[in-house]
């Protein structure tokens, strides 16, 4: 299998200081280049950029819609990363230590079924939804039907 190449994603945030704290301190993502309008982060080897959108305002949040998946309301849209189980557990523990507010607490989704996965959902301060998941066998389970 060809190794995956890093993805690039850019999102809007209401406040760069909030984003810098959440992505840098809470999630532990190293910061790359930045300006007074955007910040690059290394999100588990991927290029993740937050762009300031002043129209969101200091009290604004990105609106969310949810779809039911395995008995939980999954926020749409959302983004995230598939991690090795040890890295996923370290991240879940880190988020607990920072006392984040869970959208969906860490749990095993589709238990005993094809595609069984550990998953968790949180929101950043602007309301962008993040999912981090892990499979025992990523290559064999990521696209299981």
TrEMBL record:
- What are the residue boundaries of the VOC domain, all occurrences included? 5-135
Alphabetized CDD domains for the sequence: VOC_like (cd08357)
Query: Record's superkingdom?
Result: Bacteria
Q: PROSITE patterns under this entry? A: VOC (PS51819)
Q: What protein name applies here?
A: Glyoxalase-like domain protein
- The species this protein belongs to is Botrimarina hoheduenensis
């Amino acid at each position: 299998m060809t190794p995956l190449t890093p993805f690039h994603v850019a999102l809007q945030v209401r406040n760069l200081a909030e984003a810098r704290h959440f992505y840098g301190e809470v999630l532990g993502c190293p910061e790359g280049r930045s300006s007074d309008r955007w910040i690059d982060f290394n999100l588990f080897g991927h290029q993740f950029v937050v762009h300031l959108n002043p129209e969101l305002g200091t009290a604004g949040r990105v609106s969310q819609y949810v779809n039911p998946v395995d008995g939980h309301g999954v926020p749409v849209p959302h983004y995230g990363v598939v991690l090795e189980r040890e890295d996923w557990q370290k991240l879940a523990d880190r988020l607990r230590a920072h006392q984040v507010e869970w959208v969906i607490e860490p749990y095993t989704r589709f238990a005993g079924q094809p595609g069984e996965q550990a998953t968790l959902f949180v929101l950043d301060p602007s309301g962008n939804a993040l999912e981090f998941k892990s499979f025992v066998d990523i290559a064999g389970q990521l696209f299981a039907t």
